[in-house]
Design brief:
There is one protein chain. With 261 residues, the protein is an alpha/beta fold. Helix content is 30%, strand content 11%. The chain has helices at 8-16, 131-147, 166-174, 195-214, 237-259, and strands at 122-127, 155-160, 181-189, 218-225.
Length: 261
């Protein structure tokens, strides 16, 4: 083999060549030094080393929250609706009044009327609306008038479209001065709108105003119901309205008699 001369420059280069050190056992390749002592890149490595990542350069990636599987499927609540078997609905009456009779001490002059008809003329105003209910109210009112001794020819019935027209009809009858009292009969059933509140309020206040303006007693026999099923248990209000009207008429008669003495 022919030897090759090495010039001075080659010797100088080789003399500056760093002594390679065998890596220690157990040190990974990526842990080896990549620069010389003077900061230059080591032989076999890239001239530009990758910059080290700082904490500010690291973007945190939020891990998605785990989706919890429900133990069982939720079933929407559905109220049980009783089947309509055609049986009548039982409506319980509420008793929101105090039982017992009024007690008046002795020694006072007392005026108190009685529900007696005698020769008194009675006017009845009744609404056509909800006629199934108002017909029953009228029947009970007429039965009670007959039981009180009021003759049929002394009774005048005025029919109006609805409960809202009752006050005007009652006022018209009172102004004739032919009737000792007026019985107002009607039925208002609550619906989906405030219409019920307006009609019920105006019917009650209008009938009261009619009595105050003329001085002729007017009884309130108007049913104000939430449901039509409540009517059957309250048809007796027709008879109660008659008794109230006759009692007030008798009371006013006693008052006039006492005042004229």
């Amino acid at each position: 083999m022919t030897s090759r001369d090495i010039d001075d420059s080659s010797e100088n280069v080789l003399s500056e060549w760093p002594n390679q050190v065998e890596p220690e056992v157990g040190v990974a390749d990526d842990e080896l030094a990549t620069t010389d002592d003077d900061g230059a890149p080591a032989w076999g490595t890239s001239a530009t080393a990758a910059p080290e990542e700082s904490e500010s350069d690291v973007v945190a990636i939020a891990e998605p929250e785990p989706i919890l599987e429900p133990e069982q499927d939720e079933v929407p609540f559905e109220p049980e609706v009783p089947a309509d078997d055609g049986a009548p609905i039982h409506v319980e009456l509420s008793h929101e009044h105090a039982a017992g009779d009024l007690h008046i001490p002795d020694g006072y002059a007392v005026l108190e009327g009685e529900a007696e008809g005698g020769r008194r003329a009675v006017g009845i105003v009744v609404s056509r609306f909800n006629g199934k209910v108002t017909t029953q109210l009228l029947d009970r009112a007429l039965e009670e008038l007959a039981a009180a001794g009021v003759q049929q020819d002394a009774i005048t019935i005025m029919v109006v479209p609805g409960a809202f027209e009752l006050p005007l009809a009652a006022t018209a009858l009172e102004k004739t001065r032919r009737f000792a009292c007026i019985v107002a009969l009607g039925c208002i059933i609550r619906g989906d709108t405030p219409h019920f509140d307006y009609v019920a309020s105006e019917a009650a206040s209008g009938l009261q105003l009619a009595a105050l303006e003329t001085g002729v007693p007017v009884s309130f026999g108007v049913l104000t119901l939430d449901r039509v099923e409540q009517a059957d248990a309250r048809i007796e209000k027709g008879a109660e309205a008659v008794r109230s009207a006759l009692e007030m008429a008798d009371l006013f008669s006693q008052l006039r008699a006492a005042a004229s003495r």
